Amino acid sequence: MRRVVRQSKFRHVFGQAVKNDQCYDDIRVSRVTWDSSFCAVNPRFVAIIIEASGGGAFLVLPLHKTGRIDKSYPTVCGHTGPVLDIDWCPHNDQVIASGSEDCTVMVWQIPENGLTLSLTEPVVILEGHSKRVGIVAWHPTTRNVLLSAGCDNAIIIWNVGTGEALINLDDMHSDMIYNVSWNRNGSLICTASKDKKVRVIDPRKQEIVAEKEKAHEGARPMRAIFLADGNVFTTGFSRMSERQLALWNPKNMQEPIALHEMDTSNGVLLPFYDPDTSIIYLCGKGDSSIRYFEITDESPYVHYLNTFSSKEPQRGMGYMPKRGLDVNKCEIARFFKLHERKCEPIIMTVPRKSDLFQDDLYPDTAGPEAALEAEEWFEGRNAEPVLISLKHGYIPGKNRDLKVVKKNILDSKPTANKKCDLINVPKKTPDMASVQNEAKLDEILKEIKSIKDTICNQDERISKLEQQMAKIAA
């Protein structure tokens, strides 16, 4: 007998907005005309781009700080023009990057318990774009590597640890870049551009690996993101201004694997992808709904699951990483929907009768540990994300401070990562005449190592105690 309904554990996923007292109220969400999500979330903080006079600013709120947000609440306000995009570092929950109309990218360190005073001094200012910077995206597996894209049609990849622009792709796009997405291990990027092309680029070789002209025929903005299997998912518009979604194989971009027409609304569809469950959530700017689809290997490849609908249109949307979800409630996604004056969390749940950990819903997911250091990636190495289990819930560890050491600039700040410090110091020893100094250096290095070991042990002990506390509290 033919199965009428496709089997899927995500068929009954449903969305629910939280109660009013769990929303973030009285926030003046930015009105700037730019198609970014205006919101970035991690397991500690929610960041929202807001209206600001005389420059650009964004709010950073601890997740628990719900309710009415006072007008005098401190902001991050170092930019001289409106902020267009923000992105939390995947390897440090207290570090966030912002791109602005003032042509700069700034990287900020947020105090552990949130802001008590407005933050005007970034850890580092990255200057290299000649027009406004509308896109910032951290490398998924490498520490301190950040990509930025501007209206000068250039993509720059920075080593944040040294404040240097190490890769500049300024001749690949002939028109405005709508979005940029890293693949799973960060070896390739894909871009959607106003010239209607979708490009797959190897940034270190500085070459275009694949491209498709007129991926979507319509003139309105497109989006392109990488999926975990290496395919590319795009959203855009047909010639008749119908919204479309499509799936492409970069090895053969002639024809899409799948192409679906959706509706005739004119809001840009922002895709949010969960590689663990292969679900894509589409949030249209100005829509009041979130549609979600499952990507599989069987035709038609992109399977419609359901739609979460509400009354109010969305101005922007934040998407929580998997490690920030409540696994005990079978929560598989959490969105932070921006209204005109508030931010409303929306929780997506798979209904299950059992209270036990559902390991089919929560395979090991990307954790906060970086797989590579910046220097290793720029030298050509690749690494998959370092995975963690969510079985006992995610307990945020201690984040190390982001420190920047500028090369060839006399700077009193300590270095970005201590590993580099230890590698660089012995290299200078041949220049030192006296053997005595070498011996002294060895001694210092040994002492540093022993102090580091002690710190590691203490960290392990602290996290064990925190786990015990969490169990008692539960």
Automatic annotation (TrEMBL):
Phosphoprotein is among the record's keywords: no
PANTHER family linked: CORONIN, CORONIN-1C
GO biological process, one term: neural crest cell migration
Cross-referenced Gene3D superfamilies: YVTN repeat-like/Quinoprotein amine dehydrogenase
Residues that span the membrane, as ranges: none
Gene Ontology MF terms in the entry: actin filament binding
Protein's organism: Odobenus rosmarus divergens (Pacific walrus)
Domain DUF1899: 3-67
Recorded name of the encoding gene: CORO1C
Ranges: WD repeats: 76-118, 126-168, 170-211
Family the UniProt entry places it in: Belongs to the WD repeat coronin family.
Protein name as catalogued: Coronin
Keywords: Coiled coil, Repeat, WD repeat
UniProt keyword annotation of Phosphoprotein present: no
